[in-house]
Amino acid sequence: MDPNQGCPCDAVRVFCNFTAGGTTCINPLHSQIKFRWEPEKQKSRKSVQWFSQQHGGNKFGYAGVDVVQLRFLRLHSHTSFQRMSVSCTANQSRTAGTTNSANRIVRILGDSGKEIDSHLTTESRKNCEVEVVVKVHGSTELHRGDMELLPIRDLGIEMESLFQLVPEITAVLGPLCFL
Fold first, then answer.
1. 52: left (phi over 0), alpha (psi -120 to 50) or beta
2. How far is Cα of residue 31 from the mean position of the Cα atoms in its chain?
3. What pLDDT is stored for residue 95 in this prediction?
4. Which helix (H) or strand (E) is 132 found in, with range?
5. Sign of CA dihedral 149, 163, 31, 97
6. Residue 45 class from Cβ within 10 Å (0-12 exposed, 13-18 middle, 19+ buried)?
7. Three-point CA angle 99, 101, 104, nearest 5°
8. 3-state SS, residue 135
9. How many CA atoms lie within 13 Å of 30's alpha carbon, on the beta-carbon side?
10. Residue 176: per-residue pLDDT
């Protein structure tokens, strides 16, 4: 697909789901991400550990999507959304699910470089699994800036209360979809 209708050389590989209302989706380069608590980072007194901190500053990428194509996709869409699930290692899920500190263990950094506010996310939890859906609307001038938040570029985990119970966390990043 070529959202800016310029040259086929900058076309973007997408999946069009017509059964879901005609969504146009772009897959992340890597959909499964693993986190390990690194005790040496605890000395910085930051309770949030970001994926990019563990991977040399690299953030989530999306195949063939450049700034121009992303801008055109946003412009021609009234809604965009992306799903992510975060889970603990299997042998730790019972104990981790009983902690009272799981108020907001998942932090998400958007394409604009800003952390995505919780009012734009829907979270559901079951034991130590958290399903997060980020949905933004751009159909009015009031919400046009929200479209700049997606795609998800970085994931932060509130490790302070979890690190003793959960040494590893797995996140599965879903496709970025436009409608």
1. alpha
2. 10
3. 42
4. strand 129-137
5. negative
6. exposed
7. 125
8. strand
9. 14
10. 94
> What global pTM score does this model have?
0.80
CA 87 distance to own-chain centroid: 14
Residue 159: per-residue pLDDT: 64
Q: Which pair of tokens denotes residue 138?
A: 């751009």
Pairing between β-strand 79-88 and β-strand 152-158 as defined by DSSP bridges: unpaired
Token pair, residue 136, equals: 């933004």
Identify the weakest region by mean pLDDT among 32-36, 48-52, 101-105. 101-105
Q: What is the pLDDT of residue 80?
A: 92
DSSP for residue 18? G
Instruction: Compute the mean pLDDT over every residue in the chain, rounded to the nearest whole number.
Output: 78
Among residues 117, 119, 130, 111, the alpha carbon closest in space to that of 176 is found at 111
The separation between CA 154 and the C-alpha centre of its own chain, rounded to angstroms, equals 7
Q: Is the pLDDT of residue 97 over 50?
A: no
Q: Nearest Cα to 136, choosing from 152, 125, 156? A: 152
pLDDT at 156 over 70: yes
Q: How far apart are alpha carbons 131 and 165 in whole angstroms?
A: 20
> Looking at the predicted structure, is the pLDDT value of residue 92 above 70?
no
Cis peptide bond upstream of 151, omega within 30:
yes
CB of 146 closer than 8 Å to CB of 112:
no
